[in-house]
Amino acid sequence: MSISIKRTGGLHTQGMNFLVYGAAGVGKTSLIRTLPKPIIISAEGGLLSLAGDNLDYIEISSLDELKEAYSWIVSPEGKAYESVALDSISEIAEVVLAHEKKANKDGRAAYGEMDVQISEIIRAFRDLPIHTLMTAKLEKQQDEMGKMLYFPSLPGNKTAQKLPYFFDEVLAMRAEKDAEGNTVRTLMCDTDGLWLAKDRSGKLNTWEAPDLSLVIKKIAQATPPAKPAPTKPTPTPTKAPTPAKAKQ
Prior knowledge:
This protein is of the alpha/beta class. Helices cover 25% and strands 23% of the residues. It has a single domain, classed as P-loop containing nucleotide triphosphate hydrolases (Rossmann fold, 3-Layer(aba) Sandwich), CATH 3.40.50.
């Protein structure tokens, strides 16, 4: 076996991966227009907010159609795109679950097969050499202390718990009121203990504007080389004083 030594410096130039979740109507689908040259895989049919952008999309309603879409994207025809958006991974998981329920009489087995299938799908799209965005619905759950927790939604507890670990960037799309009472949409990039979010790049602020082109550019900026540690100066050797001659 030959060992291939690689460098981490160019990882982000090969395509970044994002999971963006939020409440219905918060603007997750609209975020797709901020990606560079995107192709959309839609399982929701809710692309009306992008009607004025004239973006290319593939509509899927079955697991076989999803696999065909993936094969087309990795073909020479798909090389025209710089990004792919799956809208939404929550709905795509429902499509996969429906397929597995038809194939398995045991409901638990269907959820188990869905977990395997959706994990493979996420890895396949995530590892493409282009930018990948997967949107997800919002799930809310109250913990034992009465706090409300917010996280991406997928059918099946096991699959939902694994979802954030597949991605470098897990961002919460939120709509908040500013000081004047106006609704401001923003991307939350770091958790506050209630909303799940993470930034593996370490280059994003807690709050970023809802523009993935700007986010991609910010992450891709080269980290300035570290300054060399100051070296301790070597003391210049001094000549020992000549002892004074004793007086006669």
